[in-house]
Design brief:
alpha/beta, Rossmann fold, formyl-coa transferase, domain 3, six-stranded parallel beta sheet, three-stranded antiparallel beta sheet, about 15% strand
């Protein structure tokens, strides 16, 4: 596997850091979760539970090991520093300044291991007036402008069902940056500290809207080209309550769709504005309302005009394309989505770990024998 032999210490909790290190673990990295004794990652206890452990936690933490360490205790801190000696990466998600107060901030860690890549995932970054402000995905996307663009024209902003700030800004963005930083170290460079802001990551996904607005185009909620402005690119309600997605942007696709719907006169009106565009919307709404979603399938599927039914979550795994790609798997630990890009068929090596399941084997690498481990347990260090 591409990252086999790369040790990553994961001090994060909940979604962003877990998603980031899962991406790296699925590519072969040895990810060791460092968790608080007794409680661990808060997501472990978030319902629904399977065998006493959260299905949500399990979905994000395959291919990882778990060690419990009390970093507020001197001995726990010292053990983390020993683990850092042999690590390539440390990922943490505390507010700015917390790691320094624990005695394991960037200066301390880089002095100990100059090749270490430290990745700090926060809501707003390490500096700026919001650096220490509490927040969640809805707040980061609100600040970045993502939330304000989501929803229908004239209506309120609608929270996204996918956590763009958490997953894109706090998961995918740092994973890519970590791999790049590791490559730099491999080429002879020093380690580095990666300042990851989930707000910055969400804003970076708005590169095109910012460019459109800068060029004088109207990018209000519901007024963008790809958010309902044009009838050729939107979602239509069908008879009985189902929905169909239409993405017929290219003229050839739009012409094919209008022909199949019996509306050839609308072809030349694809990108008109104002009341004429509103008329196109109304006419297509009326047409789609004449059949159910499933009845539209045989009509639209042969067109190759970028039209697909909108699936509910419980329908996705049965879709022939999803099934053919073996994307979703049901396991004893819950439902999992495989890596979007599979590096090797044997990518899945371990089930999600129990809290502290690997404490003994990992600490044995830094000289902690069975007797000493029992002493550490009694004193609350592990």
């Amino acid at each position: 596997m591409p990252l086999t032999g790369i040790r990553i210490l994961d001090l994060t909790r909940l979604l962003p850091g877990a998603f980031c290190t899962m991406l790296l673990a699925d590519m072969g990295a040895d990810v060791v979760k460092i968790e608080e004794p007794g409680t661990g990652d808060y997501m472990r206890w978030t319902p629904p539970l399977i065998g006493g452990q959260s299905a949500l936690f399990n979905a994000l933490n395959r291919n990882k090991r778990s060690v419990t360490l009390n970093l507020k205790a001197g001995e726990g801190r010292d053990l983390l520093l020993k683990l850092v000696d042999a690590a390539a990466v440390l990922v943490e998600g505390n507010r700015p300044g917390v790691m320094d107060r624990l005695g394991v901030g960037w200066e301390a860690l880089s002095a100990r291991n100059p090749k270490l890549v430290m990745c700090s995932i926060t809501g707003y970054g390490q500096d700026g007036p919001f650096a220490s402000r509490a927040g969640h995905d809805i707040n980061y996307t609100a600040t970045a402008g993502v939330l304000g663009l989501n929803g229908e024209a004239g209506g309120p902003p609608a929270p996204l069902s996918v956590q763009v700030g958490d997953i894109a800004g706090g998961g995918m963005q740092p994973a890519v940056s970590i791999v790049a930083a590791l490559l730099a170290v491999e080429r002879g460079g020093e380690g580095r500290w990666l300042d990851v802001s989930m707000t910055d990551g969400a804003a970076s996904w708005l590169a095109l809207p910012f460019a459109q607005a800068g060029g004088g185009e109207d990018v209000r909620r519901g007024a963008q080209r790809l958010s309902g402005r044009f009838a050729c690119y939107r979602v239509y309600e069908c008879k009985g309550g189902g929905y169909y997605s239409v993405g017929a942007l290219e003229p050839k696709f739009w012409a094919a769709l209008c022909g199949a719907l019996g509306k050839p006169e609308l072809v030349e009106l694809q990108f008109v504005e104002g009341e004429r565009q509103a008329r196109v919307h109304r006419e297509l709404e009326d047409v789609f309302a004449t059949r159910t979603r499933d009845e539209w399938g045989p009509v639209l599927a042969p067109l190759d005009a970028c039209c697909e039914p909108v699936l509910d979550l419980d329908e996705v795994a049965r879709h022939p394309q999803i099934a053919a790609r073996r994307l979703i798997d049901e396991r004893a630990t819950g439902v999992e989505v495989r890596p979007a890009v599979v590096m090797r068929e044997d990518w899945r090596r371990m089930d999600p770990p129990g809290l502290g399941e690997h404490t003994g084997e990992v600490l044995a690498e830094v000289g902690v024998d069975a007797d000493r481990l029992e002493e550490l347990r009694k004193s609350g260090v592990v």
